[in-house]
Amino acid sequence: MAQAALDEIASKDEREMWAAIEYWTKQLKQVEKLLIPVTLNILLTLIIWVGVYGTKTDSNSVFYYMLDPKHNRTTGSEIVDGMVNGMGCVLMLAVISFLLLAMALHDYKRLVQLWLYMSCVLIIFGVFASFLIDLFKAVGFRPAPPILTTLTVIAYGTVGILVFFTKRTPLYMHQFYVICNCSLVSVFYLRMFPTHTAWFVLVCIIIWDAFAVLAPVGPLRRINEKAHEYSDQILRFLMFTAEDGSDEQREEAVGLASFQM
């Protein structure tokens, strides 16, 4: 009897193990389809961060309440300061993510929609305008030409509204805007952080994103599962998009960049 019980337990453990392997295999196959847009997002972020800003942070940033030797709030080690700041930032992202998830799960639809709509508009107009001004300065225009800047921002923002809130644009346009927006917001935050903090934040966010998207209780995964209860367009600006094998469009939330605004 004892041997039979042990065999049954072993068999159950083996079934659970294979079920877990099958689950994560499916998750990795979904992520595999999104490697190209995610890779392009990383490359564009690095190009902007290095080419336009020269990896320099903004000394007037509101984020300088963080630990940093330049402002006499430090542990005495820049590395430790960066680790503490990085973990603190990811904790803040986690709180915001689960707060939004809680509102979605409890059907505060109007509040969620307002939050996301305002975030989208702020990114495609405000953050893009800030980047464009810095881009003009980087190529020698001081100050940035106001008319050209205004027209470019209006054009980018208007097309962005069509991409995210209508179905009149092709898939590649949606992909393009999500990649650009995620990169712009990423660089926006990179410039705000003290020097060593940015690198720790990048590592922590990679780990957090993997959990948020792939784990069964991950907030972005759960929000994506709730997306069908909202407008078809409500969460599109949070998501990279891939085509599945049957040519049906599938959207997966894979990043937090737009989410955090």
Automatic annotation (TrEMBL):
Keywords: Membrane, Transmembrane, Transmembrane helix. This is Presenilin. The keyword Transmembrane helix applies. GO terms for cellular component: gamma-secretase complex. It comes from Litomosoides sigmodontis. It holds the Pfam family Presenilin. GO terms for molecular function: aspartic endopeptidase activity, intramembrane cleaving. The chain crosses the membrane at residues 34-54, 83-102, 114-133, 145-164, 176-192, 198-217. It comes from the Eukaryota. The keyword Transmembrane applies. One of its GO terms (biological process) is amyloid-beta formation.
